[in-house]
Amino acid sequence: MLSRLIPVRETILGAAILALLLLIASRFSGFVAPANLLNVFNDTAPLIILALGQMVVILTRCIDLSVAANLALTGMAVAMLNVAMPGLPIPVIIAVAIGLGAVMGAINGLLVWKLMIPPIVVTLGTMAVFRGIIFLISDGKWVNAHEMSDAFTGFPRAVILGLPVLSWVALLTVAIFGIMMSRTALGRSIFAVGGNPDAAVYTGIDVGRVKFLAFVLSGALAGLTGYLWVARYAVAYVDIAGGFELEVVAACVIGGISIAGGIGSVGGAVLGALFLGVIKNALPVINISPFWQLAISGSAILIAVAFNARSGKTKGRIILKSAEASE
Amino acid sequence: MTDGSTPPRFIPDRLRTRKTRILHSWEILLLAVAIAIFVINSLASPYFLNAWNLSDATFNFTEKAMIAFAMALLIISGEIDLSVAAIIALASTAMGFAAQYGAGTPELVAIGLVVGLLCGVFNAIFVTILGLPSIVVTIGTMSLFRGISYIVLGDEAFRGYPASFAWFGQGYLFWVFTVELALFAVIAVIYGVLLHKTNFGRAIYAIGNNPTAALFSGIRVQRVKFILFLLTGLMSGVAAICLTSRLGSTRPSIAQGMELEVVTMVVLGGVSILGGSGSIPGVVIAAFVMGLVTFGLGLLNVPGIVMSIFIGLLLIGVIALPRLWTMAAAKRGRT
Amino acid sequence: MTEPLTPVVSMDAITKIFPGVKALDAVHLKLYAGQVTALVGENGAGKSTTVKVLTGIYRPDEGTVRIDGTPVTFTDPNAASDNGITAIHQETVLFDELSVAENIFIGHAPRTRFGLIDRHAMYEAAARLLRSIGANFDPRTRLRHLGIANKHLVAIARALSVDARVVIMDEPTAALSHKEIEELYELIENLKSQGKAILFISHKFDEIFRIADRYTVFRDGAFIDEGLIDDIDRDGLVKLMVGRAVDHIFPTREMTATEDVLQVVGYAHPTEFADIGFTLKRGEILGFYGLVGAGRSEFMQSLFGITKPSKGVCKIKGKIRVIRSPADAISNGIVYVPEDRGKQGAVIGLPIFQNITLPSLGRTSRSGFLRMVEEFALAREYAERLDLRAASLDQDVGQLSGGNQQKVVIAKWLATQPQVIILDEPTKGIDIGSKAAVHEFMAELAAQGLSVIMVSSEIPEVIGMSDRVIIMRDGRIVAEVAGDEMQPDVLVRHAAGIGEMSQLEDA
Q1: Does B304 touch chain A if contact means CB atoms closer than 8 Å?
Q2: Which residues in chain A are closer than 8 Å to B316, comparing Cβ atoms?
Q3: Which segments within chain B are labelled E, that is strand?
Q4: Dihedral angle sign, alpha carbons of residues C480, C486, C487, C492
Q5: Where are the bilayer-spanning segments (chain B) (predicted)?
Q6: pLDDT on residue A203
Q7: Which of C391, C417, C443 represents a domain boundary (last residue)?
Q8: Count of domains in chain C?
Q9: Whether C62 and C197 share a structural domain
Q10: Residues from chain B contacting residue A297 (CB–CB below 8 Å)
């Protein structure tokens, strides 16, 4: 009965993160100092933002493997825009980044919606195409820190009320998605489409359109993160965030978002991202090579998907009255 | 055209002769494309029509195609394995590790094959015994397998393979024909026979088209899928031996992104990404098409990353164009 | 009871045609405010199609739907619900991961000034609706935490939330316990008193006589009769429902063999069936009758090795056999022709000959390698025996008509040379001509010494074909009848439990 009030998966994951922190703190107390934890959060912010976009896509029974390539392409585009027009105000840069990302998401979405191509194929393909386009527009060259304007690179690092803007953007995204998923018709439709597409049609929801919008959301967030990423690290080149899409999917799967669609929560995605973020930041502290990270997130995906599948097994129809009574 | 003229009770075995069936197939279209690319390439670059250059060009596809054959069977059965490139990394790392301790060529080959096989079994256990979706499982093992390579190697590389080990990736059987090309041909024939001439192959098609009906027909569905994952792992091991031998070194980033090219090759070869249809000859021709295109673009000094645009577009286009075509035809039919 | 003048909804001469089948043939249906109309008919009578026409999922080919006497056209499900028609489906079509209140209000939730969903108002309204139908759970509960009965209540609350004038209940009691059914009756009375028109679809006669005011009978997609429940008795209704016992001639046959082929003792499953035991003789046709959901198919699939029984012994020709998979069953001479041809029977995408030889590949091949000549020969032999109509043997099964697909599936099983063949609803959804061919063929098989188990919900077929009939209800065998005892009303009474539930009727 308690399970009705407390979401089980999120609680277990939250407890796991807490246990992880305590374990690290027992030997390296500096890690759990508030300032360091804020650092960890700031470092994880891009993953949190992307995981929320990926969550929406996965909830509708799709997957978006092109987010990292989208991020890199948008990052390069805005970096070059900044070089060409250093006076362009940051809000315009951000709008361009979100818009460009959304367009790329829309391309994925249209191919899934109108041509009904499996999302895995579409985004595997656009992933390669987006990366290739970066090379075409940049001619394979890097955009370095000294070429970017101070305003461009300074924005995500500016500190407001003790937190960098990057962290604030992540918090804002979490808040917006929290409201969107629970309080808007689109948010509820996203759950409905993934949970029971046939029934969604009966309630008058256009399943293809909802999937399309999910890809647009994911793309827009990837675009936004593209600017933040390039500005924060003050460099743009073809391979930035290479393979980051796997980490994003890992965050979602660890966060309890079912790859079969319809099951998941904003809290889960955020916790999944934080789990990976804590591990990533803790590895150097506890003297484990950062090269362990990939294998750890891979194992986490496998454990999480096996665990979630086991807890989510559905019961069949019960015919025997006696069996029903004993349920 | 179908019935009416057919008298009751007599049903011919086949409506179309073997010739018309082949002429109307995806494979013949693909073959025409391959020939066209060949002609364009030889007109575009004076270096193209050279036996030794062409022989070098085969390396663009032989290793990928070895995996693509097993992957084709897996995709026809309705599953997918995205971890193949990571299996190459892990198998190659294991071989490099053994080579540091003085393992000879036969041991290295055995290690490559066994690691590939074990990785395949690992995937198979998650998909067929635990019943988890293969996309997520292999995205997970993709990180795990390559992650282990990173743990072992970090930013180092293994070198110092025995000289005789170079035979697989650099050797020639006679004249311009490489060991890899011969291996590719043998594997193509084996998979072609397996898929098209055996009960096992028939079971793969049945499972891909309708897993429930296949189960109801007495096919041991999970066992077949287990074997297919195992074969895909094994072929990744073979590819790892060839690639490692050719490069002469192992870095953890070896074969990065190769799963995309393997899947593209399979889909280009006419295998339905939804499962149920496709052929090995199709994949063979697709391998040549992709190899010729990469080689041709290479001769024109197009960088590798730009070729990936081409591969990505090819992957989407191959599926999208027939659908656009049918949609346009349906629209024309309605008005 | 005074006769209201205009029905809230009426279907006038509605016809709906699917490729090869006339699902509805100029049917009439009238629903009146404050009354429950029971729609009665066998499986395949056209009840589900009627529901889909009324809820805007199908568009009729001919005829008119009227609301308050005015003709209307529903272009989509939204149009029907805008007109106040709402349905509670057999399988609840709801969303497990959403809260009860969200399920009730999806698509029409109250909004705040900012356009967001007003959760406070939504939960309040949901709580009010739930209270009004006597449901005492929190509207914030996730749907997946509710049992089937409570999910039904949510579906009903959803129906009420759109201010429906017409409520369609499609087999609402199929998954409910006796107590929950009683509660449902109270709810229906409540809805009646609010002036809603209710369409009640059920197989169960005690329910119909308990709750309905009017009846309408369909048979094979055609309108048969309508009237007031008070003017008819059970036997009358059964006769209207199954009436056409004579319009199809079944092959006459004689059963002589006495040798036992299959013996099943004490088969049980934790949730689906219990205590199943019977003996099947050589050359016998044994019918299994029961309502949908009585556990017949579930038992058959267990006998075929798809699900594992928790207890039970299966003997073939006196020897105990363990069947753990369909492959085991096939090698022991038991085959199963499933009801769901699309999903479980034919492999659409493979040619006819490959479908036929699929379970027999062990015989047509040599050490694992296919032999096409043998395959075509085997496929041809059985295609001809079943008089299959096809352009060629390498044609895709998906291009064949339903009846011919069924023949391919049967051919596939006969080609394995089985001893026992289980046919699950062998003639469901196929036209009359093909039905007769299938029946004749069954008789022929039995005459050749094959033992047939036929699961069927069509009374004429069960009676016309079977030597004996076993009747199942709620996962158990409740009766076995043979000879002159095989009468429509006997079967219906046992299957529906009429007579045994008298305490309910008296209440």
Answers
A1: no
A2: 111, 117, 121-122, 125-126, 129
A3: 172-174, 177-178
A4: positive
A5: 28-49, 61-77, 109-130, 135-153, 173-194, 226-248, 305-325
A6: 76
A7: C417
A8: 3
A9: yes
A10: 143, 147
Q: How far is A28 from chain C (nearest CA, A)?
A: 41
Out of C331, C370, C399, closest to residue B199 by CB: C370
Residue C282 sits in the same domain as residue C272: yes
CB contact (8 A) between residue C95 and residue A205: no
List of chain A residues whose C-beta atoms are within 8 Å of the C-beta of residue B141: 298, 302
Query: CA torsion A199→A205→A209→A211, rounded to 10°?
Result: -40
Mean pLDDT, rounded, of chain C: 83
Of C185, C216, C242, the residue at which a domain comes to its end is C242
* Cβ-defined contact of C392 to B199 (cutoff 8 Å): no
Report the CATH number at residue B166. Answer: 1.10.3470
What are the pLDDT digits (tens) for C41-70? 876 678 888 888 888 878 888 999 998 888
Domain of C100?
Answer: 9-242
Please indicate, yes or no, if residue C189 is contained in any of the structural domains: yes
pLDDT digits (tens, 9 = 90+) for A36-55: 999 999 999 999 999 999 99
Which among C358, C369, C391 has the least Cβ separation from residue B198?
C369
- Interfacial A residues in 179-198 facing C (CB < 8 Å): 179, 182-185, 188-189, 191-192, 195-196, 198
Among A38-52, B255-269, C76-90, C129-143, the range with the most confident prediction by mean pLDDT is A38-52
Between chains, do B320 and A298 touch, taking CB under 8 Å as contact?
Answer: no
d(CA B178, CA B183): 9
Cα–Cα distance, A182 to A267 (Å, whole number): 12
Looking at the structure, do residues C203 and C263 belong to the same domain, yes or no?
A: no
Q: Are C475 and C452 in contact (CB under 8 A)?
A: no
Helix (H) or strand (E) holding A224: helix A207-233
- The answer to whether the Cβ–Cβ distance between A203 and C77 falls below 8 Å is yes
Bridge partner list, C9 = C31, C67
Nearest CA-CA distance, residue B231 and chain C, Å: 18
> What's the structural domain count of chain B?
1
The CATH number of the domain holding residue C16 is 3.40.50.300
CA angle centred on B15, ends B12 and B21, rounded to 5°: 140
Are A126 and A104 in contact by the 8 Å Cβ rule? The answer is yes
User: Residue B93: which domain range?
Assistant: 56-315
The ipTM (two decimal places) reads: 0.85
Chain C: residue whose CA lies nearest to B12: C392
C401 SS3 class = coil
User: For residues C84 and C103, what is the distance between their CA atoms, to the nearest angstrom?
Assistant: 18
Cβ <8 Å between B312 and A116? no
Residues of chain B with Cβ-Cβ distance to A136 below 8 Å are 306, 309
- Asked if C121 and C186 sit in the same domain, the reply is yes
Position B324 in a domain: no
B276 touches chain A (CB under 8 A): no
pLDDT in tens, C317-332: 889 988 989 999 998 9
The beta-carbon neighbor of A253 closest among B136, B144, B150 is B136
Residues C61 and C135 grouped into a single domain: yes
> How far apart, in Å, do the first and last CA atoms of chain C sit?
22
Q: Amino acid identity of B82? A: L
C75, closest residue in chain A (CA to CA):
A204
A29 in contact with C, Cβ within 8 Å: no
Residue B139 inside a domain? The answer is yes
Strands C311-316 and C285-290: unpaired
Q: Report the C-alpha gap between A213 and A194 in whole angstroms.
A: 13
Subunit contact C95:A195, Cβ cutoff 8 A:
yes
In this complex, which of C76, C78, C274 lies closest to A320 when CB atoms are compared?
C274
Answer yes or no: is C401 within a domain. Answer: yes
Q: What is the pairing mode between strands C420-424 and C334-337? A: parallel
Identify the closest residue of chain A to B129 by CA–CA distance.
A306
B19 part of a folded domain: no
Report how far residue A56's alpha carbon sits from residue C381's, in angstroms, rounded to the nearest whole number.
54
Structure tokens at C129: 């609706």
